[in-house]
Structure formats: structure tokens, C-alpha cells
Specification:
There is one protein chain. This protein is α+β, with helices and mostly antiparallel strands. The protein has three domains: about 1-135, no CATH class; about 200-260, SH3 type barrels (Roll); about 265-400, no CATH class. It is built from 16 helices and eight strands. It has helices spanning about 1-15, 20-60, 65-70, 75-80, 80-95, 100-130, 140-165, 170-180, 180-185, 190-205, 250, 260-265, 285-290, 295-315, 330-340, 380-395; strands at about 210-215, 220-225, 230-235, 240-245, 255, 265-275, 355, 365-375. The strands form two sheets. A five-stranded antiparallel sheet has the order 4-3-2-1-5. Helix 2 runs antiparallel to helix 5.
Length: about 425
């Protein structure tokens, strides 16, 4: 390059141009050559490197190299060739102009720092995409860890850029930065809180991508679709998106329905309110009629026999039904619903099945169905509940019971 430098300088002086002007023209000529070298080397490096990556990715069985290409890692790495050429040759171009050399050298070094960060970013994004394809890591907050590394790399990059601009040592810079740590903590408070929270969430397995969570404070009720450094994104069942601060998951209460999903059943807990005035003892004739209901035929035969034996042994006067032991229409109906639920194909038989009578209310007697559907999908779950209560409500009149209905009939003021 030195020969070319002298060549251009000698050429311009031979043309009768003054040495001062020839020096400037020589610098411009060398700068043009350097720019052309940069463009050509960048073009060749991208062609060779990108094509080599494509060829390797095509022959390789792994998808990691395909993701490197997708995130343009070879494209950014190819820029290193012209950068190295520039660092090597630009001192020759500006040898006669040291005032230009220093600021241009700083700009080139800053560009190198940014280029390194972009290469690191593309590689990290590749790892992020790659890890998300792994079943074991698919529900982990990989985004949070990648963002932390990127944030750290940008902080370090900005620090090195400041060192390049100010011409101070890197140790002196970070010593000064340590003194300003209180300000940094204030600026990056949410980021630090989010980072700590994401680690706790991952270690304690509090929440995963795909979990159904409910958090009333933020109006969230749906599936977790992303966990990153600052927020957790929840897609609600109405398809809206709610963003929850990551640190809120360790400071506020929320409900995670993962346990329900893994249990093999989804709880049904709903009541039919029976009018208290419709509850009464059953006569022998009524019991015989109810024996036609197949689900409770065996039960009625057994219970009627036991009750009759008890009453006979104890000389109970059955001229009044209240005397001795008796069956009630509510008790028999409760047994019928129990048998119906136990024989329902959509109910998980390995989990609790219970038909219980709750405390009396001003409206009547709540008869609660407590069971678990074997299908946890929302649409099917609601269908199962509707099917159970359609049948149960339709069965109520067969037992001479009445369901409570709030009457809105009232006299209008004259």
C-alpha cells in the first residue's frame, strides 16, 4: 500500500500539482481504493460464507444451522472481513493526516463493537429458537435468559464504546460506573426485578408457557403464551392479550390451573335449589312407583326391606309416616342423582363423586353435585355440565319435588 501511496503522490506532482494539494488528492485516491476493497471484500465474504452455510445446512441433519441462517448469523459474520481490512489499511490512507485518523479509528472500533453485539444477538436468538423446539424446554422462560445476556452485552458494549471515545482505561470506566451503581439500580429496577422473578419462576416451576392462569388484579384469565424479562403475556379466552409484570408473579396472588390439567379431571361444583315445602316422606305406594326408575330399583328394594324390618322389630306405629324410619323424596332423589353421576360416561370415576345437601337458605335446600369431568377442555366441560343438569332438573318432578324459582310477580303501585 505504501508503494501505491507514493505512486499516486508522484503522479499528481508530475502533473504539476503542488505537494500540499497532491497530498490531499493522494488521500482521496487511497480512500476510494479502500472503499472499493471494503465493498468487494464484503460482497465476496457474504457470497462465500452464506453459500457455505447454506450448503452445510442442506447436508446437515440438525436444524440449528438452519436457524443460524434464519437469524442472519452468517450475514453478520461476513462483515468481519471488511472490518479487519479497514482496521489494517486505514492508517496508511490517513498517514499524512493524523487529525483525521483518530476520530475515524474510533468510529471503526465503535462499529466493530456494535457488529460483535449483533453477531452475538443472532447467535443467542438462534439458541432461543432451538431450545423452544425441545419438548423439555418448550415451557421454560428462555426469552428471559436471552434478554438478560443481551442486556449485559449492550451494557458492556456501551462501556467499551465510551472507553474508545474518551480514551480512558476500561478498568477506570467500570470503577466509575460502580460508584454510580445506585443510579443504575434505579434505572434498571424493573429489569432487575423481572430477572430475579423469572429465575424464581423457572426454579420453582411456578408457571410455564401453556399454563392456564387467572389473575384478577390484572384482568388475566387465559393461557400463558410468552414469559420474558419484563412481562408475562396471557392470551385471555376472549383472545385479548394481557401483559403482567414478571415480578408480579412472585409478589401478587394468582391461580394456576395446571394441577387441574394434570389431575385427569375438571371439577364440577354446582347446586340445584329444592323448595323446602316440597320435601316429604314417601308412602309404600309411592316407593313402589319409584321402583320403576331402574337406577334406584335395587337401592329402594334394599332400603325398604331394612326400614320395614327395623319398624317391625321396634313395634313402630306406622299409622303416621313420621313414626320410625322412613324414606324421603329428597333422599331418594339424592341417591338417584348419585347413581346417575356414577354411571355417566364423562365423569372420572377415580376422583371424588359426591351429592351433598348444603345448609338451608332462604331460597330452599341446595343439593350440590360435586364431581370431576374426565374431559378438561372448556367446550366439552360445559357440555358435560349442561347434560348433567338438564337430566337432573328434568328428573325433579318424578320425585314430587320442586325447584326454587324467584317470582318477580308483584303488584304494581296504583
Amino acid at each position: 500500500m505504501t508503494d501505491y501511496k507514493q505512486f499516486f503522490f508522484n503522479y499528481f506532482t508530475e502533473l504539476g500539482i503542488g505537494e500540499n494539494t497532491a497530498t490531499y488528492l493522494n488521500m482521496f485516491a487511497l480512500a476510494i481504493i479502500l472503499v472499493l476493497l471494503i465493498l468487494v471484500s464484503d460482497f465476496i465474504a457474504k457470497k462465500v460464507l452464506v453459500r457455505a452455510f447454506h450448503t452445510f445446512a442442506y447436508k446437515s441433519k440438525t436444524h440449528f444451522d438452519d436457524m443460524l441462517i434464519e437469524h442472519k448469523a452468517p450475514h453478520y459474520i461476513a462483515h468481519l472481513a471488511p472490518l479487519l481490512i479497514t482496521l489494517k489499511l486505514f492508517p496508511v490512507v490517513f498517514e499524512d493526516f493524523p487529525g483525521f485518523e483518530s476520530p475515524i479509528e474510533k468510529l471503526i472500533k465503535i462499529y466493530g463493537i456494535v457488529l460483535f453485539i449483533w453477531i452475538l444477538r443472532s447467535v443467542l436468538k438462534t439458541f432461543e429458537s432451538y431450545f423452544k423446539t425441545k419438548p423439555r424446554l418448550k415451557d421454560k422462560p428462555i426469552d428471559s435468559y436471552i434478554q438478560v445476556v443481551l442486556l449485559f452485552s449492550w451494557v458492556v458494549g456501551v462501556g467499551f464504546a465510551f472507553v474508545v471515545i474518551s480514551d480512558i482505561s476500561i478498568w477506570k470506566f467500570f470503577t466509575t460506573l460502580g460508584a454510580a451503581s445506585a443510579v443504575m439500580l434505579l434505572i434498571f429496577k424493573d429489569t432487575i426485578l423481572g430477572f430475579v422473578a423469572s429465575i424464581q419462576v423457572a426454579v420453582n416451576d411456578t408457571i410455564r408457557i401453556g399454563d392456564w392462569i387467572t389473575m384478577e388484579k390484572y384482568g388475566a384469565d387465559g393461557d400463558v403464551i410468552e414469559i420474558n424479562l419484563s412481562t408475562v403475556q396471557v392470551q385471555n379466552f376472549d383472545k385479548t392479550i394481557t401483559n403482567i409484570p414478571t415480578y408480579a408473579l412472585i409478589s401478587d396472588a394468582f391461580k394456576n390451573w395446571r394441577g387441574m390439567s394434570q389431575s385427569g379431571g375438571r371439577r364440577i361444583k354446582r347446586s340445584i335449589i329444592i323448595k323446602a315445602s316440597s320435601v316429604h316422606y314417601l308412602s309404600e305406594e309411592t316407593i313402589d312407583e319409584l321402583k320403576n326408575i331402574q337406577l334406584i330399583t335395587d337401592y329402594l328394594n334394599t332400603r325398604q326391606s331394612d326400614i320395614n324390618d327395623f319398624n317391625e322389630k321396634n313395634n313402630i306405629d306406622k299409622s303416621l309416616l313420621i313414626n320410625g324410619r322412613n324414606l324421603t323424596n329428597l333422599g331418594v332423589f339424592r341417591k338417584y342423582v348419585q347413581s346417575y353421576i356414577e354411571n355417566h360416561s364423562a365423569i372420572n370415576k377415580d376422583m371424588t363423586i359426591m351429592i351433598r345437601q348444603l345448609a338451608l337458605t332462604p331460597q330452599g335446600i341446595p343439593l350440590e353435585i360435586y364431581a370431576f369431568s374426565s374431559d378438561q377442555r372448556w367446550e366439552n366441560y360445559e357440555y358435560i355440565i349442561a347434560d348433567i343438569f338438564d337430566h337432573s332438573l328434568s328428573a325433579v318432578p318424578y320425585f314430587n319435588l320442586e325447584v326454587f324459582e324467584l317470582s318477580l310477580d308483584a303488584k304494581q303501585p296504583e
